[in-house]
């Protein structure tokens, strides 16, 4: 086999795998993919543990989107199973719905509010209206006031990000809706379903093509000088690609504590798939019991993940604020000069993206590559 590839792709998560699939099937390209981990799927990787319970190796991954295009694309590789994620938070000794909704307010304050208007009036009495929402503290306090902000957001956010919400872009806490009705779903998207056979099965099918070669447990630097390639797709951290020459971009990491327990009655342990711990005094942020979301509703074992935020470890979360954006922009300027490299995905673009957004970004990136003439249907580089 020749060691000449049209494209070398670094990273076998959504961004890398979608580019590989598109370039191989739409352009006839020969593609080599590498990942330093010993598996494909990136952070979405899942596997069956020794008890036969499906576990998401890097924390709970729930698929939700408003994009028909993304659903249509992924549906080539999977069937779906309906699942709406629900979360409770431990607050004042109770488990109450999170996102905050009418039930949350009634249960915490011993009220019996019945309409959206009544709940809105409750928030309005406490809200601190602002002309300009500057950060993740403002985005909550302006709508529901300081007390609910302190109970649900401040401690959780300080643990997760090692920064106060006032030091984070408003988009971080704005991910969580603030509701006046009794909708207790975590997400509001039109499409909320899980892949019927799990996530790894999607990647297996996506990469099952004679023109795609996958090498796991392989660093970019292991192959960089060993193979020839026309184009490089980089889905790892952008600062790593440029040798951290302007300094390290900060990422938040997590340590996962895996807990397996017997459930001889076949039942589940947690009241909902995820229990959040907003108190700063609890050292972890949330516990998730996978069987709620994977469809294994009856099983004689159950497996849970407890998440402890860390500053060292795998780069899981880019940190959205002005300072990190300024540093990212310096790297992005270098990237813009590199016609020979395509930067795509959560780490390469330093964006806090959900799976569906990465799928959308990868599809758009492929379309741009074709439109720019850098790749063409013949499989050669222009
Ligand atoms: P990744 O999946 O990070 O893939 C990048 C790959 O590149 C990695 O496998 C890495 O090992 C490899 N790599 C990097 N550098 C190199 C190198 N130099 N050499 C070789 N290999 C390299 N999204 C949702 O939609 N719903 C959720 O519920 C959800 N939950 C999440 C929970 C957690 C704890 C985390 C961390 C993320 C969650 N996400 C969720 C986001 C989701 O994981 C990402 O959007 C998606 O996986 C990003 O895909 P990617 O291809 O950009 O990056
Ligand atoms: N958040 C919070 N309290 C919660 C849940 C979320 O303060 O109970 C904040 C926190 O800053 C978190 C952000 O909202 O990082 C986004 O939450 P999400 O559940 O979307 O985080 P992810 O699943 O991406 O870790």
CATH superfamily of the domain at 4-40 and 207-249 and 319-371: NAD(P)-binding Rossmann-like Domain
The secondary structure category is: alpha/beta
DSSP strand count? 17
Strand order of the main beta sheet, please? 8-7-13-14-15-12-16
CATH architecture of the domain at 4-40 and 207-249 and 319-371: 3-Layer(aba) Sandwich
The CATH topology of the domain at 4-40 and 207-249 and 319-371 comes to Rossmann fold
Measured between the Cα atoms of the first and last residue, the distance is 24 Å
CATH class of the domain at 4-40 and 207-249 and 319-371: Alpha Beta
Helix content: 25-40%
**Share of residues in strands:** 15-25%
Instruction: Provide the low-confidence segments as ranges.
Output: none
Bound molecules: flavin-adenine dinucleotide, uridine-5'-diphosphate
Order of helices and strands: EHEEEEHEEEHHHHHEHEHEHEEEHEEHEH
Largest sheet: 7 strands, mixed
What is the molecular shape?
globular
Radius of gyration: 22 Å
Mean pLDDT metric: 97
Number of helices: 13
Organism: uncultured Solirubrobacteraceae bacterium
GO molecular function, one term: flavin adenine dinucleotide binding
EC number: 5.4.99.9
Keywords: FAD, Flavoprotein, Isomerase
